[in-house]
Amino acid sequence: MKLWKKIAISLGVLVIGVPLAIAGLFIYATSDMCRNEVYSQVVSPDGKRKAVVFQRDCGATTGFSTQISIIDSSDDLKNESGNIYVIDGHPKNVSPGLKWLSNTELNVERSLNGSEYKAESIWGFFKKIRITYGAGNS
Fold it and tell me: pTM of the prediction?
């Protein structure tokens, strides 16, 4: 192969190949590696909301986590963290029971013990939902 062809190929690889490789690595590094798997859900008495228990998996370097979100009953769970409750462990081992006490009050049937990463007591902006923890109405 002639010298000018070798130079042209090398320049082509540098000008096109290297930027494509860098762009690919950037896209891979910034993509969301997490996914949610629904474990259970309970619809509010009026059918407008649902509380969803799910496992959030963010790859091999993270452990299992059980999370809870309140969403509109017509919506699918988005690929986001739980909006009211997060705790370590697989849902089959640590999933609390959920019980709607009214359209505006949800009971998470697990007492808080400090191991939670998130445990909200109010959710929503206009029509707030009160969240209580523990067996019954505690």
Answer: 0.74
